[in-house]
Amino acid sequence: MKNFITFLLLLVFSYAGAQNLPKREFRGAWIHTVGNQQFKTMSADSIKQLFIKTLDNFEKAGINAVIFQVRPQADAFYISDLEPWSRFLTGEQGKAPDPVWDPLQFMIEEAHKRGMELHAWCNPYRVTSNDSEQLNPNHLYFKKPEIFKKYGTQLYFDPGEPEAIKHTVRVIADMVTRYDLDAIHFDDYFYPYPIAFEEFHDDASFVKYAKSQGFEYWQKADWRRHNVATLIKALNDTIKSIKPWVRFGISPFGIHRNLKDTPDGSGSKTNGLSNYEQLYADVPQWADSSWIDYNVPQIYWKIGHPAADFKTLIEWWNEKDFKGQLYIGQNISTFKEPDVNNPSATQFAAKMALVRNLKNVDGNVWWPGWSINSNPFGFSDSLALKYQHRPALIPVYKNLDTIAPAPVVKASLKKDYLVWSHPLINVKNADAMQVPHFYAVYRFPKGAKIDIQNTDYLLKLVDTPRFLIEKSKEKKSKWVYVITAIDRCWNESSPSNPVNVTR
User: Fold this and answer.
1) Residue 503 to residues 90, 332, 418, 451, 458: CA-CA distances in angstroms?
2) Which of 50, 70, 112, 62 is nearest to 374 (CA)?
3) What is the largest CA-CA distance in the chain?
4) 121 and which of 114, 185, 351, 371 could share a cystine (Cβ 3.0–4.6 Å)?
């Protein structure tokens, strides 16, 4: 009975808030594979069913972008000639699944079917998680050991070695060329997170390259930031040269710099690890240089955290207004923390209000995405019934394209399907930036104003020019459907001709 009452309350809240939902909002979820010990005991069909279940739950929760980890440790969750199969898929690095299948290709197809983007999440430098992991004999480490460094119990590429950069760029170029990706995504692991009383020993590469690159012996920190920036720029240039519509996004640690570390007062009023000082990642430089298209700082703390307050950090990133889109990396577990002004409530409402009321914040990415399957503390229900009750288009990437695609034509009803066409479907040598990637289906009550800005009437995003209209189990109603075309960068066309449907 208690669960039923909770459901009714959420349902009431969902309809009360639907009108105010943003039409455009990034709603991503991370699916991590690093450390997974489950897949190696599962058949390919079982893994596929888990992926399908997860994407179905994402769709119910209003997710519009899947961030799928495909290169956790210089390895591959996809068919690759450059790096070995991931140990986290089969239990042994380099061991192919039997029968062979391609998890990345599968996820791309399944995500797109549901109107979701697929972002390939890669780690640039990590090679092992501990010193007990065995590398495949064909791993690059055994061919070029000089470009790797051990730190703690882990093995990393040395970011100061040009060959490490070249290899990473080659891997990403191969992926972008062969797969229909919407974005390449890197998380917060650049130079390793520091270990107390242990130095990352890159003296050899510093001595070898720093002087010729314009750095003196006292500028090692600047040189390290230069190394990471060189990789970021090279990756973006390469991605855009292959497919100009594929975005490049970074999800850094939530603190760029602390106020105490910035004589000019530009840092945030926080007291924690710093991207800039400890990880050598200058994310504002990358954003304002247009080397990345979106930024997802991982602000994984609660409102009121003494060292890293969520409100302080989201407002800092918002106020800086760096180029590109700003999404917020959200730790799902913090949404059940007590509200600072009303301890009988959670911080859910306050956090969502900050995201939606701050001018330069364009959405969220949820961590860990897998937990949406288990609906912890009713979190997934809250998304599905209130905060993400209606689908949302992703904000337009105006830095890449501002031209809307041509509208859909010949929309009509054929049996139980709404079908349509588009002038560029199957046109040889058509401009890929103008070919529809998705279509938005809107449904209006008969006699209502056709207003595609009203989120109440956005029904679904699809990737094919057809849509099944389900028959009503109740009294028949009269509806008017219109379709819009959405291109690779989320520009939206004007609506199609209206189609009258009685169901």
Assistant:
1) 48, 39, 12, 21, 18
2) 50
3) 79
4) 185
CB 184 within 8 A of CB 237: no
Alpha-carbon separation of residue 198 from 33, 195, 201, 208, 261 (angstroms): 28, 6, 9, 22, 22
| Alpha carbons 253 and 466: distance in angstroms, whole number | 42
Model confidence pLDDT, tens digit, residues 171-207: 999 999 999 999 999 999 999 999 999 999 999 999 9
Q: Element (H or E) spanning 248, and its range?
A: strand 247-250
- Whether omega for the bond prior to residue 376 falls within 30 degrees of 0, making it cis, is no
Q: Is 388:65 a contact under the CB 8 Å cutoff?
A: no
DSSP string for 91-112:
SSTTPPPSS---HHHHHHHHHH
pLDDT at 10: 46
What domains can you pick out in the chain, each with its CATH number? 2-387 (3.20.20.80), 409-502 (2.60.40.10)
CB 389 within 8 A of CB 474: no
Backbone φ and ψ for 109, nearest 5 degrees, come out as -65, -45
How far are the Cα atoms of 116, 283, 296, 488 from residue 26, in angstroms, in the given order?
Answer: 11, 20, 11, 14
- SS3 labels along 27-50: EEEEECCCCCCCHHHCCHHHHHHH
Alpha helix stretches (DSSP H) within 61-161:
87-90, 103-113
State the burial class of residue 341 (Cβ atoms within 10 Å of its Cβ: 0-12, 13-18, 19+): exposed
Amino acid identity at 238: T
How much is the pTM? 0.95
Beta-bridge mates of residue 149: 156
Quick one: 86 exposed, middle or buried, by C-beta within 10 A (0-12, 13-18, 19+)?
buried
* Bridge partner list, 295: 250, 326
CA distance 372 to 50: 12
Decide: 492 and 404 in contact? Cβ < 8 Å: yes
**Closest C-alpha to 465, from 491, 488, 444, 496:** 496
Starting at the earlier edge strand, list the strands of the sheet with 458-462.
458-462, 438-445, 478-486, 499-502
pLDDT recorded at residue 503: 80
Per-residue pLDDT at 7: 47
Q: Which residues in the chain land under pLDDT 50?
A: 1-2, 4-19
Looking from the CA of 451 toward its CB, the CA atoms found within 13 Å total: 9
pLDDT at 13: 45
Cα distance between residue 406 and residue 190, in whole Å: 41
